[in-house]
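Dear all,

This email documents one entry for the complex benchmark we are building for the journal club exercise. For each entry we list the sequence lines for every component of the assembly. Then comes the predicted three-dimensional structure of the complex as a token string, followed by one or two observations. Please use this as the template for your own entries, and keep the labels exactly as they appear.
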Amino acid sequence: MAIEMLYFAWVREVVGTGSERIDPPAGIETLGALIDWLADRSAAHANAFADRERLRAAIDQSFASPDAPIAGAREIAIFPPVTGG
Amino acid sequence: MIRVLVAAEPIDVAAELASVEVDGAGGIASFIGRVRADDGVSTLELEHYPGMTEAALRRVAEGARDRWGLAAVTIVHRVGAILPGERIVFVATAAVHRRAALDACAYCIDRLKTDAPFWKREVTPEGARWVEARAGDAARAADWG
């Protein structure tokens, strides 16, 4: 099922786009596995996702950890730790 | 009454404070965050995740209202380009008594820092850089349980 990926802040800059539509193969079941799969798409993706400690994510606009299941997700965002306020 | 606003326009403090002066509110507390000109910062750029940001701020405000029985909560956060000295964030809480208003106000700003998807980018004479999150912010938010 197609998922809308969103990237913010330096993750967006390094990936080279703020959004892309993806269709991961069956077997990609968690957020962590999805990021591994995305990292193989291009050198830019690999650079952006090289240090997982620096990444945070949200599934359908709720913060999610790497072991979170992605089944049924419509929108997944990957971004650095937040710095508002 | 809960009011959450994410906007590029300057924050009108007088209007925002007036909006929380509701019936039954004997104490009103507020917090204003302003952009500092540290290290030659000429502009602070705020990026956010539209949709998730507003929902996250609303959850923070609702959490404060429910925990302290507030009469009103307002959270306003600017996005886009902001200059040193300008306001970036505003929180106001209205309660029957001062202690609830003051504690709830501190809770809102502490939680906002870890729960709302904003990212700061500092523009300086040497170039622009993304601001790194501070471990202390997560600790302060966690202190509220």
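Observations: The first helix of chain A runs from residue 9 to 15. Chain A has a mean pLDDT of 96.
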